[in-house]
Amino acid sequence: MKILGRQILLENKLFLRSFEDIFWTLAFPTFFMVLYGLIYRDTVWEDFNMRAIDYTMPGIIILALMVTGIMATVTGFVEDRQKGIYRRLSLTPVKRQAIIGSQIIYRYIIMLVQTIIITVIATLAFNVKINGSYLLLWAIITVGALCFLSLGFLMTTFIKNARTATPISMIVFFGLMFLGGLFFPNTIMPDFLNKISLVLPSTHLNNALRMVVIEGSGIKAMWKELLITGAWIVGCLGLSIKFFKWE
Questions:
Q1: Going by DSSP bridges, is the β-strand pair 50-51/44-45 parallel, antiparallel, or unpaired?
Q2: pLDDT value at position 152?
Q3: Which of 27, 66, 22 is closest to 206 using CA atoms?
Q4: Helix (H) or strand (E) segment spanning residue 242
Q5: How does DSSP classify residue 84?
Q6: Angle 199-143-203 (CA atoms, 0-180°, nearest 5)?
Q7: Which of 74, 91, 123, 209 is the most exposed, having the fewest neighbouring CB atoms within 10 Å of its CB?
Q8: 25: containing domain
Q9: Total domain count for the chain?
Q10: Is pTM, for the whole model, over 0.85?
Q11: Which pLDDT score, from 0 to 100, does residue 97 have?
């Protein structure tokens, strides 16, 4: 546990020293929240009988989780692996479980910080109300974090070098963002795209968050959303363990 704790502390120190990491994981999602808040403010979408900012706020949280879980994880891990950092670490007393565990925990901490910042800005600056349980909100964020981290680590098993890591992760990121209905309802998409969106984790996590934030629903109302997301976690983790490479 001491080794794991030291590794987590090291990862956080490296993160705080990287302006690029801080910008993309903390400033970029915050910028989206502020931008959408200023654009929409009290604009009401009559078709949904709600303010536009209330509809998009959960989507911005999902966007933040994907930035860290997919883009930051893929590009950072592949780059470090290409530099031989993990190969050298494998020759030290630090166990692989501690390395992977520290990566997951420190990125999870960042995701919680992202969510807190976005939620505080949304509630204080733009009067967004969290109608459901904050505990359930945290639980969904945790499930989402595990899902996107699992997907990110799975992608690192198939991406060979840092040159291709960024474009591939961006394709996956934007695909999940637009097809997941983060900023507009899936129902306006063509039928074939709507069918694709129904199997994506971003769609179901987004639905679950909206149920909590907007509708104030309990866990019984979103069991299907969490079940599908859980299937993604299990599938991605299983494939990651099978194909993961340190070099």
A1: antiparallel
A2: 92
A3: 66
A4: helix 223-243
A5: T
A6: 30
A7: 91
A8: 2-243
A9: 1
A10: yes
A11: 66
Q: Find all residues with CB under 8 Å of 103, minimum gap 6, and list them.
A: 11, 73, 77
What local confidence, expressed as pLDDT, does residue 160 receive? 83
Do residues 214 and 208 touch, judged by C-beta distance below 8 A? no
Nearest partner of 138 among 61, 57, 192, 194, judged by Cα:
61
* pLDDT at 204 (0 to 100): 95
Location of structure tokens 């060979």: 160
DSSP string, 145-212: HHHHHHHHHHHHHH--SHHHHHHHHHHHHHHHHHHTTSSS-GGGS-HHHHHHHTT-HHHHHHHHHHII
10-residue mean pLDDT profile of the chain (247 residues): values are 67 69 83 88 80 91 94 86 73 67 85 93 92 94 94 89 89 93 84 90 95 92 94 91 73
106 alpha-carbon distance from chain centroid: 13
How far apart, in whole angstroms, are the C-alpha atoms of residue 85 and residue 142?
28
Helix, strand, coil % over all residues of the chain, rounded to 5: 80, 0, 20
Q: How far is Cα 119 from Cα 204, in angstroms, rounded to an integer?
A: 20
Which tokens hold the place of 246? 């340190």
What the block records as the tokens of 69 is: 């879980």
| Cβ 155 vs Cβ 169: under 8 Å | yes
